[in-house]
Amino acid sequence: MDNKWTKYVSILAFAGMLVFLFLLTNIQAQTDVFQETGQERDARMEWWRDARFGMFIHWGLYSIPAGEWKGRPVRGVGEWNMDRGQIPIEDYEPLKEQFNPAMFDADRWVRIAKEAGMKYIVITTKHHDGFCLFDSKYSDYDIMATPFKRDIMKELSDACRRHGLKMCWYHSILDWHHPDYLPRRGWETRTAEGADYDRYIDHMKNQLTELVTNYGEIGVLWFDGGWEHEAGMHRAEEIIAHLRNLQPSIIINDRIQLPQDFNTPEQEIPDTGIPGRDWETCMTMNNTWGFKKNDHNWKSTEDLLQKLADIASKGGNFLLNVGPTAIGEIPQPSIERLKEMGDWLKVNGEAVYGTSASPFEAPAWGRYTQKALTDNITRLYLHVFDWPNDEKLIVEGLSNEAKYAFFLSDADRRQLGMSRNGNLLVIHVPRRAPDAVNSVVVLDIVGKPGEK
Ligand code: H79
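^ thats the input. predicted complex w/ H79 below
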């Protein structure tokens, strides 16, 4: 009897061990794809961290109704037109027959981004309405089903490559059109019967494969709309492993219910950045992502430039949106603001690109960014929004030796006078601000800030 039990127990234990080993190697195989050293990760993230400023483009069928439906305003953001207007698929889908953006010129869009000082472009390959702006063999609801019949993603990715910008894809997991996507909206009449979310994920995986194999190198895969299900339902690990397998250096955001490479605060700038994480604030210039003809609530260039400095001072990126019209034009107010931002960046870009977060709390007059010049010299950039009226720019809490100060806009780098009072450094500046929005003073100090 005893003997028999021991035999059973050991067989069971052996079997258990086999199962355990099997699971372990399987988990190993799954996680291998994500395994990289800190150095490898830094190398992969380098271009993105240096870039600091990118263009978001929301474009799709919703740019045709442009915030209305049958002559009536639809509340909410433009790209939500179908849902906010409770428009059934059979009414919304025919918009594809009208999509014919005669003015679309990929080179022009990329030049606008480049002139603005933006280093990458993230465009909606597909938004929640399910319409695909790329040529997909897995969907008839794509750009090839429109009179336009030109693969917009192909033209844009080629243009980006020509101009040296990184092409990045926004892709919505949420899909109001695909029959297998679940759940249904509360207002629609389609039944959920026969729908199979797992089959939807197969479909999404196929389309993502197209997006990362047919258009050369892709900088970022920017998921959205993943909040209706958990990571497991999306088969997020499998999808990500698949993408990383096809493009090992791709950067992936946090919206497929796994943290991945960076966080994505939307329409907000976190108070103190996001410690320990890379992050990017995405934001609109007016109140909508997709074009709305009656949204004229534009942020000022001053506001946008100060937001860029604020974000850089907290170690983040700024993904600023444009919503082109149905004929393929970026709205003029957006173009004007981007041009002005570019003019500022041409002079002051050094204070933004490749910098890291401020070592100090934000001063009353503006923001700091910083860059290590050599092992022993740190360059502080003083972004002065509010110019002092007593010719004294005060740097508080600086224990390091201050070597040299000058205006970034001064090609001759004439040295500004400085005096000290303990940890208070006074930089002697002219009465008039060199720049009405953000005057950058460069301050080179010995060692790292905070060190003697
Ligand atoms: O693509 C842009 C948005 O459409 C998308 N993310 C950015 C980049 C986004 N989808 N959903 N959300 C963000 C959050 C959901 C917001 C909602 Fe609403 C509040 C859905 C319903 C109420 C905003 C306001 C959308 C419709 C009305």
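The radius of gyration is 26 Å.
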